[in-house]
Design brief:
seven-stranded mixed beta sheet; 2 domains; alpha+beta
């Protein structure tokens, strides 16, 4: 069994779909929220850092590790999943596997000058609208376009969505404001 076959077996889900964990790396600038994208190693397309489950690490910790290895990012990881998307992972010229990626928001506090995959990738900051237009996966584009930073002191949404609250009593529902991720 080759290394691609060993990787493909990790995190197997229903129907052979493999699970991965990704980091939506963000920061606040004078223009507002910015999202960090990196290039994939194989095609050079714009993506977020992501990878396979790691033994002994929670999903958000695995996403943080991938953000370090692939983009040199250090920061604060939100423990709540902010969305999921799917894509086809090419393992070789003849093989691909369906993957589902759980995405976690990570506020970037530091970008290292040197990191494990620095010679294999580029990284660049974009507005959420620009980043959403650059990624190939429609569901990832939606996650990026709709991203809002969490409220200070909270890891993520704590109230039901308006759709889940028939009485309209969820926090923020009267003002029409969404809770951030």
């Amino acid at each position: 069994m080759g290394w691609q076959d060993k990787i493909a077996v990790q995190g197997t889900g229903p129907g052979g779909t493999r699970m991965q964990y990704g980091a939506l790396c963000w920061r606040m600038s004078t223009q507002g929220v910015e999202v960090l994208l990196i290039t994939s190693r194989d095609t050079g397309r714009w993506v977020i850092p992501k990878g396979w489950p790691m033994p002994g690490l929670a999903p958000e910790a695995a996403a943080a590790q991938e953000a370090w290895e692939e983009a040199g990012v250090q920061g604060t990881m939100n423990p709540l999943c902010i969305g999921r998307y799917g894509y086809q992972k090419c393992l070789s010229a003849e093989a691909s596997v369906p993957c589902a990626v759980a995405v976690y928001g990570m506020r970037v506090e530091e970008l290292a000058k040197t990191f494990p995959e620095m010679k294999e990738r580029r990284r660049k900051w974009f507005s959420p609208a620009e980043a959403a237009a650059l990624v190939a996966e429609p569901d990832l584009a939606t996650i990026i376009a709709q991203f809002l930073p969490p409220v200070q002191g909270r890891p993520g949404p704590i109230a039901a969505d308006d759709d889940d609250d028939p009485a309209g009593t969820a926090a923020g529902s009267k003002s029409g404001q969404r809770k951030g991720h």
